[in-house]
Amino acid sequence: MRRSKRIHPTLPRSVVIVAVIQIVQGAGLLSAGIYQAIAHGWGLQQHLGNWRFIPLPLFESLSSAIVLIGLGSLMILMSIALLKLVHWAWLFSMSLQGLGLLFGLISYMRHRPNYIGMALGILIVFYLNLDEVQNAFHIQEKDNQ
Amino acid sequence: MDEFSLALLRRFEPILKYTRGEKFFPMDVERYISECSLWVKEPAKPAQELIPQGALTIDDLCKPKPAPPGSIYFLKFIDPLDLIELAKYSLNKAIQKISHSSQYDSFRIERARLARVGYASRLVDALFSLTLFLRGRVPGDTAAAAALAYQQLQQKEERYCYYGRIVRTHNWIILQYWYFYPFNNWRSGFLGVNDHEGDWEMVSVYCSEPLQHDEHLMVNTQEWVESIQPEWIALASHDFSGDDLRRRWDDPELEKVGDHPVVYVGAGSHASYFQPGEYMAELELPFLKPFVRAVDFLQELWVNFLRQAGSKESKNEFNVFRIPFIDYARGDGITIGANQDLTWQTCVLNDNTPWATQYRGLWGLYAEDPIAGENAPAGPVYNRDGSYRRSWIDPLGWAGLDKVPPYSIWGDLIDQQAAQIQIRIAELEEAIQAKSRELQRMGTLSVALVDQCYLNEEYQKIQREITSLSQELWQLKKELAESRDIRAALLQYGEQIQQGYRESPRAHIRREQKPLPQTNELNFISEMIAAVSVGLLLIGFVLIWLFARHYFLVGLVALISALIFIEASFRRQLPRLINSLSIGLAIVSFFILVFQFFWQIVIGGVFLAGLFILWDNIRELRR
């Protein structure tokens, strides 16, 4: 497999910050997943509440150990890719954070909020959207093409 | 108008390039008025016809028209077609289209305007379309009737006219080319903002006046006209004003054929552009103004304070509360101008032209539209409210040239200014010399009095005078130093001018009007989705409410998401979409956190501020 090309010779400080926050977030999810696996097993049907306006089985499965561990690992991998300035890492990280924030909001509406996750998500999105970070990943140039 | 002026106007008369499908071209006002009736609309009364069509003459327009305050005089060019006439017109048009009898008559929208903007803008656009039902507007078939009437007029006598006006002021010779169109069919013909009867547009060429009136030149028209140097050109435009309206004669953006500038005319709107293309024009509805300002403020904050992406470009992006319209100035239709198939007839316009200066009414139907877009404009001299147009009474200021002298006199102006500054420098040197001597004298006196207690009052007075004089001297020395710098800069610039240096022809432009990029990202499906999205959304909203009320929120989110994702995929803008959605979610989450932990955030903030101050002060102690 061909290795992704490095697209920027220097590593901006904001990229380091965003990668570190994402590692912390990933580690948190990973720990929660491991705890879940030990305490409740690997089941995909964890009931988180009874909010009938969101009848999503997918959402129910989100608190499962497998998904938490998977997401946590993905976030850590993305952070490493961000530090290496791999060009697709920015888009994947932003997508992950978007999903994370969406499910964070759904959890909040189901009275099972994860405020720390939300705060980390906000910080990461803010940093990913900084001019400096976008320039490092050539995001605006691609948009303007 | 004398032969010199006429020859000068003809030398620089613009070549106008129209878009295919344009139906109205510049004409003389006499023929238009002969087809019009004159009306007055007094407040709280229905409009009343004063002079019927056929009986109205130019002289009637110029007669004094007493009326109560708030009354509006207007011309009415045309009545809408009846059903049979409209059917005939539509049939003829369809036959022409099929047989391609006129290559200039077919217009196709290649890039739908709604596909270029987001959903919020589309919603505001839908709102604007609905307001057309509520506010006054030009009736639907009027454009077709006007097109027929104009065709008939042209069939009798084909003529294309402009009204030329020459203004001489402050070493400038300003050539104004005024174009009168019988109808603006931007809305009905080209999906634009408005339709209205009568339309005045203008192009100005700014030439430097020869410094000395050579008698030989004044005898020979040809030589005199050729001695005139054009320096700038300004085009009237929708959203631009001042400096941004004009281009320097040597600007590469300005296309020329010989001495004739080429102007691209917006289809239906008749706005003027320097380059061919499709231009985004934005309409701001009066009641949405506060939202527009709020969005502008937030964008400024987002980009400059929070350093978020989009930066410079995003400032020029369209505000979601402004309605986007496209002005098609493709230049692929008829061309009128010198050495073209169709040429101009020059008509004269000046400060003594009675129909221009004495008629303050509208040059077409007063549709009673509060936004005013559907009301006809007033003439070249006046605005709709009867006040003077800036382009008429201040043509230099209108294009931001009131601060710019003609290039030919720059050298003289610099020398004059340098000489004035030199005189001031000499005055300042003399004053400084005198004041310094005075200050030294007072200083000596002050030292002599310092120990004489019985002269204490005198001593205090001298001290005050010393302080005041010293301050005065400091100001004079500062002014002297600055004056020397200014003079040096002027002389240096003067030398550069002598060597032929000129700043960039685009240095004055703050906001440039650029045609929209011809991207391939907008394909048929994305244009289709853009066109139907808002309508589908509203229908889906109703259907979910009727049949799946329990899942209303989820259904609505799913519907909007599906539309947005499908369109973004076809436009290859998924990354931008993901970015926007994530930012939106982050903002919502931020407000939830602030709502949930307001006091904790305040207390935490104060605590952190305390820690910072402590750390900063201790660090200072350790230095």
Characterize the structure shown.
- The complex is a heterodimer of chains A (145) and B (623).
- By secondary structure, chain A is mainly α.
- Helix content of chain A is 68%, strand content 0%.
- Chain A has one domain.
- Chain A has helices at residues 13-40, 57-60, 65-83, 89-109, 115-128, 131-136, 139-144.
- With 623 residues, chain B is an alpha+beta fold.
- Chain B has a six-stranded mixed beta sheet with strand order 9-8-7-6-5-16. In chain B, strands 1, 10, 11, 12 and 15 form a five-stranded mixed beta sheet that branches. A three-stranded antiparallel beta sheet of chain B has the order 3-2-4, with no helix packed on it.
- In chain B, helix 15 (410-449) packs antiparallel against helix 16 (456-498) and helix 17 (524-547) packs antiparallel against helix 18.
- The interface between A and B is medium-sized, with 35 and 28 residues.
For the structure shown, list the relevant keywords.
heterodimer, A: 145 residues, mainly alpha, 68% helix, B: 623 residues, alpha+beta, six-stranded mixed β-sheet, five-stranded mixed β-sheet, 16 strands, 15% strand, globular
Largest sheet of chain B: 6 strands, mixed
Low-confidence stretches of chain A: 1-7, 44-55
Q: For the residues shown, what is the average pLDDT of chain A?
A: 77
Query: Which structural class should the secondary elements of chain A be placed in?
Result: mainly alpha
Separation of termini of chain A? 28 Å
What is the approximate shape of chain A?
A: globular
Give the helix level of chain B as a range of percent: 40-55%
Our count of domains of chain A comes out at 1
Spatial extent as radius of gyration of chain B: 33 Å
End-to-end separation of chain B in angstroms reads: 83 Å
Beta-strand share of residues of chain A: under 5%
